[in-house]
């Protein structure tokens, strides 16, 4: 049985004051919201500059801390970059790797993303590998080709065994921040394709790996998405910026467990 993971991706939003308020509200909701706090795991992937707040506020709570990016090199003369070991020092458990915004706006390649994932695993954290197709690719019938090549590139670079230490997030680019969510059936089709692709290499790892859905997930659609057999949680953008909305998604995850 895979424990659902509901991870918020705050992206580049918030101030120190709003970040603190949001963290405290999420901790309060998860700790005392009437749910077990055990059935679904919850994490907040915050901007680097709020990691210190996260370390203090989330410590000794069920809410895990995550980052949104990492340098592909372990240390050295890489001005402006943040090393995996630094994230680990702040108590991060998760690091998002290869989000479509980074692939698109910062030209991150599969090879670079695979390297970042190695750094995250070496430092004792878990990468959340994001994959997904654009609208144009979906309309051309290329969804499976695109997702397969993104997954295969990491398997080729890092080996299938590394997939025992990662999460995957399927995020159709056309659903991110658009309000247009994949239907549960559309998402399930791709999630099951991803699991089968991994099973070609290792059935046990495929069975255990958590595949999250991301793309306009909100309180109103989370339960239906999370009810699908191969959807093991959510990577939540916009809706993770509103405590009540995010907590409702977490509760849907809790109920689906
Ligand atoms: O990482 C999160 C995804 O990009 C989804 O963002 P969204 O929930 O705002 O569509």
UniProtKB/TrEMBL annotation:
This is Triosephosphate isomerase. Pathway: Carbohydrate metabolism; erythritol degradation; Carbohydrate biosynthesis; gluconeogenesis; Carbohydrate degradation; glycolysis; D-glyceraldehyde 3-phosphate from glycerone phosphate: step 1/1. Homodimer. SUPFAM superfamilies: Triosephosphate isomerase (TIM). Its EC number is 5.3.1.1. One of its GO terms (biological process) is glycolytic process. Belongs to the triosephosphate isomerase family. One of its GO terms (cellular component) is cytosol. It is found in: Cytoplasm. Pfam families: TIM (PF00121). Substrate binds at residues 9-11, 177, 216, 237-238. Keywords: Cytoplasm, Gluconeogenesis, Glycolysis, Isomerase. One of its GO terms (molecular function) is triose-phosphate isomerase activity. Involved in the gluconeogenesis. Catalyzes stereospecifically the conversion of dihydroxyacetone phosphate (DHAP) to D-glyceraldehyde-3-phosphate (G3P). It catalyses: D-glyceraldehyde 3-phosphate = dihydroxyacetone phosphate. The active site is at residues 99, 171. The lineage of its organism: Bacteria, Pseudomonadati, Pseudomonadota, Gammaproteobacteria, Chromatiales.
């Amino acid at each position: 049985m895979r424990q659902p993971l509901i991870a918020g991706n705050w992206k580049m939003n918030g101030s120190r004051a709003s970040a603190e308020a949001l963290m405290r509200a999420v901790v309060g909701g998860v700790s005392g919201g009437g749910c077990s706090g055990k059935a679904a795991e919850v994490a907040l992937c915050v901007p680097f500059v709020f990691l210190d707040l996260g370390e203090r506020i989330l410590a000794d709570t069920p809410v895990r801390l995550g980052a949104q990016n990492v340098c592909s090199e372990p240390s050295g003369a890489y001005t402006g970059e943040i090393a995996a070991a630094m994230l680990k020092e702040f108590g991060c458990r998760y690091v998002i790797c290869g989000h479509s915004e980074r692939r698109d706006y910062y030209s991150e390649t599969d090879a670079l993303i695979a390297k970042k994932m190695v750094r995250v695993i070496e430092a004792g954290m878990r990468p959340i590998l994001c994959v997904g197709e654009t609208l144009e690719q979906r309309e051309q019938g290329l969804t499976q080709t695109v997702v397969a090549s993104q997954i295969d590139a990491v398997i080729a670079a890092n080996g299938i065994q590394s997939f025992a230490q990662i999460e995957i997030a399927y995020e159709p680019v056309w659903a991110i921040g658009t309000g247009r969510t994949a239907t549960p059936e559309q998402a399930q089709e791709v999630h099951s394709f991803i699991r089968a692709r991994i099973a070609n290499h290792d059935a046990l790892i495929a069975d255990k790996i958590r595949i999250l859905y991301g793309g306009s997930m909100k309180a109103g659609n989370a339960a239906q998405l999370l009810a699908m057999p191969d959807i093991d949680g959510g990577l939540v953008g916009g809706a993770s910026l509103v405590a009540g909305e995010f907590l409702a998604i977490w509760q849907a995850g809790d109920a689906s467990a």
